[in-house]
Design brief:
mainly beta, 4-stranded antiparallel sheet, 3-stranded antiparallel sheet
Amino acid sequence: MTDLEIPLRAIPAQSFRIRLNGLYYGMLIYWDTAPEGGFVLDISDGFGNPLVQGIPLVTGSDLLAQYAYLNFGFKLFIFSAGAPWQPPTQQNLGVTSHLVAEW
């Protein structure tokens, strides 16, 4: 089993390309300003074609579990050091709140 922390910064929006389990993916993480909003993740394939959009970054479970039919070949988890159930905020994302891929 391989774990990889995906480096993030405490900013309202960021996009990048990353290689996970042998394939390239595009990721866009942005702050949703809705009343119950928070950070949200969009994933595209290596060519920029959308695969899934609007995944809330929540702690406690595999973010991709409901998309198992897409056969990503990895799982994504959010965890917060010192406060395991605390969701990522604009102040702690990439500082104490981390995104980890596992395959």
